[in-house]
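A.,

Following up on our hallway conversation. Structure tokens first:
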């Protein structure tokens, strides 16, 4: 019996559940001895049947994913500490402070190395043609001069275009 019900289309299954509920309700109303108990049973049967059909329709619409892999919610813009620190390093490096300049140099170096590896262009020494003469010279040695906003913009644009 359950296999035959499982083989029915969702609309047909809904009609079967509705018919059974109507029959139980009609019996409860027509037999006076059942009275209040019959109406309670009929109401409970209706609610249970509709809940089962709703759940079955939902599961047939899409498969249920039972694994416990949860993704982290995306942080709101401006909350990421790495971006805040990088923005501070850019501001302070523009003033010529040595520690932020070194951190900014390290960040640009690691980004350039990652981009070059993803492209398969080899090491930093072989990449002067890809990165350009100015960026390759800046990355080859520790920063000795103050990095201007125009230079930083040009360097980041070059690195962005290396995809």
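Then the amino acids I'd put at each of the 163 positions:
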């Amino acid at each position: 019996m359950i296999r035959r019900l499982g083989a029915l289309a969702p609309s047909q299954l809904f009609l079967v559940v509705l018919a059974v509920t109507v029959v139980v309700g009609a019996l409860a109303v027509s037999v006076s001895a059942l009275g209040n108990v019959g109406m309670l049973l009929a109401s409970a049967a209706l609610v249970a049947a509709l809940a089962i059909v709703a759940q079955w329709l939902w599961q047939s619409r899409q498969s249920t994913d039972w694994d416990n892999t949860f993704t982290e919610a995306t942080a709101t813009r401006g909350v990421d500490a790495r971006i805040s620190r990088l923005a501070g390093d850019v501001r302070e490096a523009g003033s010529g402070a040595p520690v932020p300049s070194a951190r900014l140099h390290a960040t640009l170096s690691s980004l350039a190395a990652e981009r070059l590896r993803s492209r398969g262009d080899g090491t930093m020494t072989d990449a002067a043609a890809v990165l350009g003469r100015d960026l390759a010279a800046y990355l080859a040695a520790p920063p000795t001069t103050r990095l201007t906003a125009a230079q930083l913009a040009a360097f980041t644009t070059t690195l962005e275009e290396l995809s």
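The two ends are 60 Å apart (CA to CA). Curious whether your intuition agrees with the design.

B.
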